[in-house]
Write the structure tokens for this entry.
Amino acid sequence: MSRKLDIKHGRVDMSHGAGGRAMGRLIEDIFLAAFENPWLRAADDQAAFDVAAGRMAMTTDAYVVSPLFFPGGDIGLLAINGTVNDLAMSGAKPLYLTASFIIEEGFAFADLKRIAESMGAAARAAGVTVVAGDTKVVERGKADGVFISTAGVGAIPAGLDLSCRRVRPDDVVVLSGCVGDHGAAVMSKRENLEFETEIVSDCAALNGLVADMVAAAGPHLRAMRDPTRGGLAAVLNEFAHAARVGFRIEESAIPVRPEVAAACEFLGLDPLNVANEGKLVAVVAPQGAAAMVETMRAHPLGRDAVVIGRAVEDANGFVEMRTAFGGGRIVDWLAGEQLPRIC
Amino acid sequence: MCLAIPVRVVELLPDDMAKVSLDGVIKTVSTALVEDLAVGDYVVLHVGYALAKIDPEEAERTLELLAQAGATA
Amino acid sequence: MKYVDEYRDGALAGRIAETIKREVRPDREYRLMEFCGGHTHAISRYGLEDLLPENIRLIHGPGCPVCVLPMARIDLGIACALRPGVTVCVYGDMMRAPGSGGSSFLKVKAAGADIRMVYSTLDAVKIAEKEPDREVVFFAIGFETTTPPTALAVRAAERKGLKNFSVLCNHVLTPAAMTAILESGGEDGVRVEGFIGPAHVSTVIGSEPYKVFARHYKKPVVIAGFEPLDVAQAILMLVRQINDGRAEVENEYIRAVTREGNARAQAEVRALFELRERFEWRGLGFLPSSALRLRPEFKAFDAEARFDLIESRAKDNPACECGAILRGVKKPAQCRLFGTVCTPETPMGSCMVSPEGACSAHWTYGRFRERAKDAAA
């Protein structure tokens, strides 16, 4: 084969996406090295695997975060954990992932390697395997560094049917921990805020926590979702819309780190609209709520789990929040792009 | 009127700039509109500029007035 | 957060609300205008109205600079952006404000114009410095709080010898708008009995300029801080003035507002800006001496002079009630477009775009309260 890539100084160029020797070199030195597993080693165009009887879950996602490297993670970590989490929200055990890379001409090998290694480590930590991938290179200016697109499959335990349509009035809403960390970390990096205590993305794979929750909850668990883009507000409104219920939540119950709250004040953001990458919202039948919170708190990623409200009859599907101040307001989807308030 | 937040001055910088902190979140802002600033002072910050010093005694007095207003008859 | 959390204490708010309930006369309404958009936002964000007695009516005033900017001025900004080589810098709230034909800075950005959101005029000057081949235009909006930062930006550009920086100035004045509200009495006007005065405008202009409203118009003014307890306290002080038959300027925001205000900021503004003879305000029409433009000696930094811009006569959607709402004459729910055609995703008027606008506030806060009232009725 050809010479190894000069990881330290080299850059991706158009030949690395052309399907020839250069692309093979890139895949070998960067992706195979990071994801090392029999499927990728086999170098087939597809990965074949046995499936268990029963239902499978499948998901797809794309990652375009900027900046690519932020406190607490990078685009690669997001890609693996985000896909794992999408599967996990159905209660599925995540199994196999694919990863497609669209790389901008001129992207440094060193950065690509860093991202790939981050993904490899994340996949191993989550117990999933990246079994297939693709590489494309586009001209300078056409892809902000790198875009990553993924797909994932998992196996749903027999008898489990989690769905937002199952949510009913009086069901309890449980949040797994502090909100706003990821979005605040990324936005703060973009806006050149410094920190005494750095705000770090909460990017994490939730399948371990979910497995504990599913095992403990039985039929009481109705639905789960991770509040990524759009934040907690989006998830609650999605549930309200799908299940045709309303929600009543308590602002004082929602945990927000002081530095995240402060960053949001600076940026004019509402923590409820800010993205999270390592949190989940679970809706539980009332009789199972207390036990669910206990189960979650026993897991490192659910230490701060808390009940934040409940579903109610509401033809309008309003998500109403009692403010810490004592008044009430609606928590709505964020309109448009997240525009920080200035004046 | 516009979004403005009270922040603490943590470091004075040349050219009428300063580092200010809100609960440990630090930003570099302009102090060109406020005189005689010292580290530890609090200012009202608006669109990247300090607009006014917060008077700690008056702030205390306000809290006292609020407490009085909230006293049950 | 110091100087923030203490003024958000919900328990204390409840107790102050009890005091207000005890002191309001049950046989009358108290019509109080909170002039400033920041107060509108605070009231809705904290649900302050839920704590107040029914006979206190809070009327949202036109103190939202995005809301009062006529479409024609937004069109000017968009026209700049469409010129080749121009970079327009805007504050976040301006991105989705509708210009004519449903256009906006966000929309032209999607079509390829170079629009950059900035938090501060400092960022805009930095861009001009870093990118000398771009013509950088800062789209300046805001009341007296936001004007000194624009003045300092022009000073900085001058000092650095920048030849590619200019300002499209839409700065407006608070007392002029308050006067217009009071003068527009009669059938089409609203009977405002007292003002909750703006917090941060007042740190700049001081409490002195509001004297005319107390002395001449006999309306009490209480300058209130930005936090919900400040607003609650100011409401109590207004209720007391009205009950006593007094009309004075009082200052609740003593921790940041003085009688004279910020002399340095005022001096900078005086040095760089002059009064426009008249300026159009959405909802209030043309108001004399209500807005600023750069002085002739700073023509090089004035985008209107630099780009030879011509203002069009842009018309609002005829069913859009932003004007009446900004004057306090109509409520958002009374606008035919509210919630149907006009939503936060598809705003017809600025009152829905800006988080400080009455319609946006009602969308977030008021809709369920109305329904609760109907249910109780």
In short: Chain C touches chain B through 57 residues (CB under 8 Å). Chain C has a mean pLDDT of 91. The radius of gyration of chain C is 21 Å. The longest helix of chain C spans residues 358-376.
